[in-house]
Design goal:
This protein is of the alpha+beta class and about 250 residues long. It has two domains: about 1-75, Orthogonal Bundle (Arc Repressor Mutant, subunit A); about 105-235, no CATH class. About 45% of the residues lie in helices and about 15% in strands. The protein has helices spanning about 1-15, 15-25, 35-40, 45-55, 75-90, 105-110, 120-130, 145-155, 185-200, 215-225; strands spanning about 30-35, 60-65, 70-75, 110-115, 115-120, 135-140, 145, 170-175, 180-185, 200-205, 210-215. The strands form five sheets. Strands 1-3-2 form a three-stranded antiparallel sheet. A hairpin with a 2-residue loop joins strand 2 and strand 3 (about 70-75). The termini are far apart.
Length: about 250
């Protein structure tokens, strides 16, 4: 009964439109202020504070005080996994409402952050490339990095060592809600994302989880992962099977 009650509580919290919007914004992996979340959810700052207090109380969101502002973030990778799984169920199982595709939608489908790892066509293409080369093995329940893959990723500047005492999953597949195929999550996925952002291969889009691929990123992904950087618009890129990475499009 306790588990059922907790499930009802979590479902009610996530099911509110404003709170769902805030959680979706925090899935970018960045910490945002209450004012920023109020703006994105189209509610007043006082209403946003009430919603955020409930999310913090349920341990779905964590808060850190810095100077005069409170910064909110997803409380844990487990919460992020739950939210992304709900997105997948909504995309696959719930009859979709008709909504015209927009430039913003195409940008999200092309490349975005899924909490702290890469998702969208780019994320799936990177996973495909690593699997095709035998660097990473992904199963339904988990993933692992081969010895050759460890060397390859280390050469890119990716730290595969988990921090002492970390309970973080090392490597796992994450079903991409837009591509309906796997990208890489866990510590390995987070490190790949960090490395790509640090190298300037992607730029974050304002008020969005979408990532913009830079010319340096197109060159880097081609050199490192063998991804073909053709002159293709993000909305027209087709997902390929394993071993046939998708073409990439850059935005200067």
């Amino acid at each position: 009964m306790v588990a059922a009650a907790n499930l009802v509580e979590v479902a009610a919290l996530v099911g509110d439109t404003a709170r769902a919007t805030m959680l979706g914004a925090l899935m970018s992996g960045q910490s945002l202020t209450g004012g920023e979340l109020a703006y994105l959810a189209h509610v007043s700052p006082s209403t946003a504070s009430e919603h955020l207090a409930k999310l913090v109380g349920a341990r779905l969101v964590a808060v850190t005080r810095r100077r005069r502002f409170n910064y909110y973030r997803i409380a844990s990778p487990l919460v992020a996994q739950m939210l992304e799984s709900m997105k997948v169920v909504a995309a696959l199982e719930v009859p979709p409402r008709y909504q015209p595709r927009s430039v913003r939608d195409d940008a999200m489908r092309f490349a975005r952050t899924c909490y702290d790892h890469l998702a969208g066509r780019i994320g799936v293409a990177i996973a495909d490339a690593l699997v095709a080369k035998g660097y990473v093995v992904l199963g339904d329940d988990g993933g692992e990095v081969a010895d050759a893959g460890a060397g390859f990723l280390a050469n890119l500047g990716i730290d595969l060592n988990l921090k002492s005492g970390s309970r973080r999953v090392f490597c796992r597949p994450c079903l991409d809600w837009s591509e309906r195929r796997y990208h890489i999550a866990g510590h390995v996925g987070a490190e790949i994302c960090r490395c790509c952002l640090q190298r300037g291969w992607f730029m974050r889009e304002r008020d969005s989880r979408a990532l913009r691929l830079t010319p340096a990123g197109a060159a880097g992904l081609q050199a490192s992962f063998g991804l073909d950087s053709g002159d293709v618009q993000p909305g027209k890129i087709e997902a390929r099977s394993v071993g046939k990475p998708a073409k990439l499009a850059t935005v200067a």
